Structure formats: C-alpha cells, structure tokens
Amino acid sequence: MTDILFKLLVFTAIIFTFLLTGACCTDTMCLGADNLDMIQFHNFSIAELDTIVIKRFSENSELATPIDSTVVITSDFSSQSSFQQLYLIDKMSTDFDYELRLSDSGQKYKISDFVTQKEGCNTGFMCNDNYIALKSFNLNGKVKESVRLTITK
User: Fold this and answer.
1) Residue 13 domain-assigned?
2) Pair 86, 39: CB distance under 8 Å
3) pLDDT score of 12
4) What whole-number distance in Å separates Cα of residue 86 and Cα of residue 76?
5) Enclosing domain of residue 143
6) Cα dist from 116 to 10, 33, 98, 120, 139, whole Å
7) In whole angstroms, what is the distance from residue 149 CA to residue 133 CA?
8) Would you say the C-alpha torsion 40, 44, 50, 56 has a positive or negative sign?
9) What sign for the dihedral angle of Cα 33, 35, 41, 42?
10) What is d(CA 135, CA 121) in angstroms, rounded to the nearest whole number?
11) For range 31-55, the mean pLDDT
C-alpha cells in the first residue's frame, strides 16, 4: 500500500511541476520589438491610409538608398473610428530605418533610432521569460516614447 501511495505522490508532484512551469513560461503576451507587425494611426482618414509605401533603409543611412520597399493597400478599416491599425505581412525590424509615404496625401513619416530594452515577462515561480521591449523610436526627427509603432496626425 505504501508503494502505491509513494508512486501516486511522485506522479502528482511531477504533474504539478509541469503545470506550474508550463503555465507561466510561454512568452504569451510578451509583445515587443520582435513583433513589429502593426502600425497604429490616429486621426487619419480612411482615404489617407488607402495606399502606403514602406521603404526600408540601412540603419543610420540618412534614408539615402532604400534596400527594398513594399506597397500596402488597405481595405479593412473602420469608417466610424479615427484610430486605425495597419497589419503588415512582413514585420518591421529595429535593425533598419523606414520611410512611410501615404500615397493619397504624399505625407512622409521617417521612423528610425529604435530604442529597446530586455525586460521580464510572465515572471513567476520557477519562471523567468525575457523579451526585447520597444521603448521609443524617432518619428520625423522627434523621439516618440511608445511600446508600439504609432503615428498621430
């Protein structure tokens, strides 16, 4: 009887350990600089955001020669909101500088000088996930402190 009780106790301890460590160490909701797949726009009309050209440049290149560019044609915006989220097929990287041009208005937004910091996420008992948090970036020559790429008109 004690042998069965001992095995049951060991089995319960193993299951409890897996549940405890698996529940917190998942990197879930640790969205940071490695997840730049969205740009938030505030106070823009849907027409202004219809077509956006995104050019990628080498970091600190003064946006001289683009490495590549992509055209994003949008269609899933809410007509009742001044806040829009543009989801990107290819994530942006803090290792590059970018220029966004709104085709409708010709407005240009230069994004550069990303500042990141390693931070803890989902920390708990027997768990210490880390991720690279976005702290700020330079938007048209001005430092913008934000954890997401946000452009306000």
Assistant:
1) no
2) yes
3) 58
4) 9
5) 28-152
6) 43, 7, 16, 13, 15
7) 12
8) negative
9) negative
10) 15
11) 89
68 in a domain, yes or no? yes
Residue 97: pLDDT band by 50, 70, 90 thresholds? very high
Total tally of structural domains belonging to the chain: 1
In contact, 69 and 56? CB cutoff 8 Å: yes
Query: Do residues 52 and 100 touch, judged by C-beta distance below 8 A?
Result: yes
Asked whether residue 42 is domain-assigned, the answer is yes
Residue 17 lies inside a defined structural domain of this protein: no
Residue 78's pLDDT is what?
A: 72
Q: For position 119, what pLDDT does the model report?
A: 87
Alpha-carbon distances, residue 94 vs 33, 98, 118, 152 (angstroms): 7, 10, 14, 20
User: N- to C-terminal Cα distance for the chain?
Assistant: 73
Region of residue 3 (phi > 0: left; psi between -120 and 50: alpha; otherwise: beta):
alpha
Share above pLDDT 70 across residues of the chain, in percent, rounded to a whole number? 77
